[in-house]
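Hello support,

Our group uses your service weekly, and this is the first time we've seen a run hang past the timeout. The protein is MFS transporter. I'm not sure whether the cause is the sequence or the server load. Input pasted verbatim:
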Amino acid sequence: MEKRQFKGLALTLLAVSQLILALDYTIIFVGLPSIATELGFSANSLQWVVSAFSLVYGGLLLIGGRLSDLLGRRRMFMIATALFGFGSLLGGLVNSDIMLIVARGIQGLGGALLSPATLSLIMSNFEEGKERNNAMSVWAAMGGVGLSLGLLLGGFLTNYFGWEAIFLVNVPITILVLLLAPVALQESKVKQTTRHYDLAGTITVTVGMILVVYYLIQSPLEGWTNYATIIPGMIGLCLLLLFVFIEKRTKEPLIPSSLIRIRSLISATICAALFSASFGTLYYFLTLYTQEVLHYSAIQSGVSFLPLTLSALVGSKFINRMINLIGIAGTMGTGMVLGAIGFIIVTQLTVHGSILAMIIGTIIIGLGQAFVFTTMFIAASLGIEMKQQGVASAIINTGQQIGSAVGLAVIMAIVSATLNTSGSLEHMGNDLLTEAVQMALIIEAIIALIGLLVAFTLKQKKSNALVTNKTAHK
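Update from on-call engineer: The timeout came from a worker crash unrelated to the input. Re-ran successfully.
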């Protein structure tokens, strides 16, 4: 009983960590107007409140995963939580635009170290099979809840306590997690057999990823062929190619070649990218629609996502049953199909408001989100040695981050080219903005259906998953 209680506490801490990371992705959106007014951000510089986090987070995930394996998952979990809490505290206390961007960068650093540590701690603290799948369901549900809850909580905090509360709300949570982590979590790390460390690979992949992510973030604003974006992007691509060259020749590669050959990890990573490009970009477009077209307040806009939040919670309860019934590939594919159906239903929104279509569509999307988000991480853990769980976690998280950046950029480019518009969607009229959002939803549905095809490259793992789960029941 005592062991079960400790595992319950461990899962609570890991789920809360996932919740605050997901919250941080959307909670900032509704506070941006107030931040711009009080700290004097220009229209062009305000986006860096969001981009600073994404840039550091996406660029440092791989090194975060490797450090987690080598230095200890619990140790890195605590260091990362402390960094995230410090960045949050700094963000709530600053009085200048530059310092807020720095605070967001520190939060991103904490996130890059925290995300792979959290996921690999689930792998090391919970046995493969039913126990781990249950833990993954709870952990993933918190991620889905955090994305939609962030909009509601951000609106509430900004409205009643000021935008600073968006950051400060994380501080007591991180302190509590730090106090309980040494008691609840078991340490897990790789025994080093050599003192060699892949420094060249670490530098090239980290700088390369940061430059590529920078290109993806800035290009929709500056232009895809603008020298200010394409030169860093090309340098980043060259560094990533150099990284591949280095990895083939080093004794202790940052990403072991054995990982690249694991089909389930590669398929899961591609699914994660497609998930973020479709499900992940939905929040941006629907927030624009509810606030710019329907003129909802920040709180009303957040409340409109509650059906999605609740359906994602309900969906998470059926993950194990779905996996036992139709396998990991079938569950993930079902989620992608549900997402595509939901996106198409939501396209019925109009300039005058079609909240019923939005409610029905987002309920279906929420179920799909729960199925995909959980199973893609379960799939990524199949066949991975414990000593490589940190790096494997970082790989799928990197796919998720890149998918979000590429997905939004591609959707925006197609919408702009089709509607023959330039500039941000915020400056469009209601009719044109509604049409742009409808088109974005159609593209998201197509991306989700591509995800369905990729999900079925995992089909060979179905029997393994079922055997594992049945063994766990005995």
